[in-house]
Write a sequence for this structure.
């Protein structure tokens, strides 16, 4: 899943990004309200961690603008403010949850996971079954038949992108964008490495290469 952090305290933002990346999320970071609104409007995110006090445009305005445009991405607001009025204002503009600084990183991760689960419960089932392949995107578990296949965080994330669009061609760029992040400057062929590993663990025929276009997950038999 892909998260956006809009936070002008750079040390905090980078610390959160590092921790959430270790949890298996692809994380983008911006430090300005106007840039945050642009990125949130143009990108496809599963959740936004949004500070209230930002240069350029505050978090209240970003949140209300996104909601007015019909963007229902879960928003977790962060602020150094305190008090019932501030919390009410944040929630009134359309935020889904609210966390006051200083906060525990463990609590933030728990809130993020809860919001993502809540959104998942309102949408499609997190369990995808294709032939004898079963992928549970909530529990992050994969089975071929009765046997569980153990995948690393990144392996699962690559497989998840293919499963969510099973039967369609998914480009290498799409996988990079959702599994890594916009700041990734490494070798784009890293996707091929992970696809190769998935083929070894799940079966060579499962993922087909569509030359010049990307990869397609075939229905396993």
């Amino acid at each position: 899943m892909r998260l956006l952090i809009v936070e002008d305290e750079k040390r905090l933002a980078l610390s959160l990004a590092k921790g959430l990346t270790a949890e298996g999320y692809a994380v983008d970071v911006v430090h300005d309200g106007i840039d945050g609104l642009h990125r949130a409007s143009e990108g496809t995110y599963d959740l936004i961690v949004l500070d209230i006090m930002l240069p350029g445009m505050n978090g209240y305005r970003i949140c209300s603008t996104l909601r007015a445009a019909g963007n229902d991405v879960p928003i977790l607001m962060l602020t150094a403010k305190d008090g019932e009025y501030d919390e009410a204002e944040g929630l009134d503009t359309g935020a889904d949850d609210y966390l006051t600084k200083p906060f525990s990183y463990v609590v933030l991760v728990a809130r993020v996971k809860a919001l993502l689960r809540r959104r998942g419960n309102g949408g499609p089932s997190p369990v995808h079954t294709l032939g004898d392949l079963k992928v549970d995107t909530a529990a992050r578990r994969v089975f071929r038949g009765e046997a569980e296949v153990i995948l690393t965080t990144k392996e699962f994330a690559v497989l998840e992108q293919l499963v969510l669009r099973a039967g369609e061609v998914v480009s290498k760029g799409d996988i990079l964008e959702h599994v890594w992040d916009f700041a990734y400057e490494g070798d784009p062929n890293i996707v091929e490495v992970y696809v190769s590993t998935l083929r070894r663990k799940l079966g060579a025929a499962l993922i087909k290469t569509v030359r010049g276009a990307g990869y397609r997950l075939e229905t396993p038999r």
